[in-house]
């Protein structure tokens, strides 16, 4: 039974009045057999929701639209120009690992120790993150391939979204980096693909570098620049552009990958604009060469 | 240039001599330091490159090495997410427990692991196959909810996605194990076949023709509808005759064919359990085996026939294992043993 919107609205208005008078707050468990039973079940729920929505207008001015929602950190990242220290702090990027396992090479990026935990200096993280964003932007502007690597279950949707944001130049690895992806590409992808396609990325971003140390080594062998979130137990020199931050926090990973992918998107837009300008100039030149002589 | 070339090669040989166990790959960063191509632009003229434009990979999961598999996982998950959001807006999800039980079953048969691997163009291990079928199951649940809610468009959209993952002979597979419906002839007789051990019985069951029923009195309780039988209350009419079930096996009456009471009880058991004794007559032709096998075969045929006449009875017969063909057969004799299980006498020496 398909319901049109007006029928639903009329039914809902009638049901709200009935609902309020009957004081039915929850759908009572009863067997659902016929399509009418199912549509009654739907209407009951819809009327309850309508009641809430109706009275919400008289309550707080904060609505779903103008408040923070947990999915905003993934779907609405700040652009690099609007990145602030408080955003990094809010995502928990300053929490390092235990003091006892701090890598001595990480010392320049450590602010101090509190409660046995290394606190990361976000005053250094912020410009390093913006530097990494600038790198992503310029590589994307030169038609570079950018690969986002996050091999944890909670990082999977993050890298996927980041690759989507960059567009046709963005790629993601959410589960496992197969050893030999770069060093054994002929056998992995086949000679045709290697000959006719681009199988070497121009930039790789690691959201959890400790788990992907083999991938980092392959990138070093193939001379591919790397960006990575380095925590206090990691030597920052493993990647070319380290971003000292908490690698265990999902929100931090969302923020970092969001900032970098927005920068990538900007780079792609720059490239599109330049290409449009070049095309226009080319068309003008061709038109000039075909201009008929004036009599 | 020549000097540089000579110097470079001598340096390489020196390094190679020092570490002759390592491969040239390991010396990539020490033997020949990396110089970015941009820095060589003004040093050496760029080699004339063949104009081959290399294309970027299509799939965004190309560098995983299993693009087909991960792409399909991503698209299935996004389909699940979108359909869940749509059903949530329609107030059909989340479903409470009582509503979940009321959902009509929409059983599907997914493709085999090999067929699925071919479809996704990626070799699937068992864990990956299970993951894919898990996601397909979730999508199928959403389809069921959309179906029962009456949203044909959403349901058909989900069906079109799921059909590619279903087996071609899905209907044949689902129909397996379902008994063919028993046909009745023009006299209302059912024909069924029963088997036990080496015996096979062909059984015809016909309802007993009722005599003219007496006028119903107030004392008679309301009776449930069991075929054409009107239960006669003995207390109300003690003179009324009780109808009898007549069983003919190979043309002989039951008592003559099966002298042992155990065999006769076995044949009558379906009637006793269902309370239909006196409602139906039975004619059976049985061949093969001995008394136990033949009586068991007739009982099996009777059970199937009664279930055809009175479908409500099927659950009782199923629970009492009468409708199931007893799979026990004579076990074969094995070499080195006297019989199927009997061993020869053990001798110490």
UniProtKB/TrEMBL annotation, chain A:
Q: Which UniProt keywords apply?
A: Ribonucleoprotein, Ribosomal protein
**Which terms under GO biological process does the entry name?**
translation
Q: SUPFAM superfamilies under this entry?
A: Ribosomal protein S2
Query: Which PROSITE patterns does the entry link to?
Result: RIBOSOMAL_S2_1 (PS00962)
What GO molecular function annotation could you give as one example from this UniProt entry?
structural constituent of ribosome
User: Which Pfam family, any one of them, does this sequence belong to?
Assistant: Ribosomal_S2
Q: Which GO terms describe its cellular component?
A: mitochondrial small ribosomal subunit
InterPro entries membership: Ribosomal_uS2, Ribosomal_uS2_bac/mit/plastid, Ribosomal_uS2_CS, Ribosomal_uS2_flav_dom_sf
Family, according to the entry, reads as follows: Belongs to the universal ribosomal protein uS2 family.
Tell me which HAMAP family the record gives: Ribosomal_uS2_B (MF_00291_B)
Kindly give the PANTHER family that the UniProt entry links to this protein.
30S RIBOSOMAL PROTEIN S2 PROKARYOTIC AND ORGANELLAR, SMALL RIBOSOMAL SUBUNIT PROTEIN US2M
Protein name, per record:
Ribosomal protein S2, flavodoxin-like domain-containing protein
Q: Which organism is it from?
A: Thelephora terrestris
Automatic annotation (TrEMBL), chain B:
**Recorded family membership:** Belongs to the universal ribosomal protein uS9 family.
Q: What species is this protein from?
A: Thelephora terrestris
Question: What Gene3D superfamilies does this protein's entry cite?
Answer: 3.30.230.10
One GO molecular-function entry: RNA binding
Question: Which superkingdom?
Answer: Eukaryota
Q: Which residues form a coiled coil?
A: none
Q: What is this protein called?
A: SSU ribosomal protein S9P
Cellular compartments per GO CC: mitochondrial small ribosomal subunit
Entries under InterPro entries matching the protein = Ribosomal_Su5_D2-typ_SF, Ribosomal_uS9, Ribosomal_uS9_CS, Ribsml_uS5_D2-typ_fold_subgr
Pfam families according to UniProt: Ribosomal_S9
Asked if the keyword Transferase belongs to this entry, the reply reads no
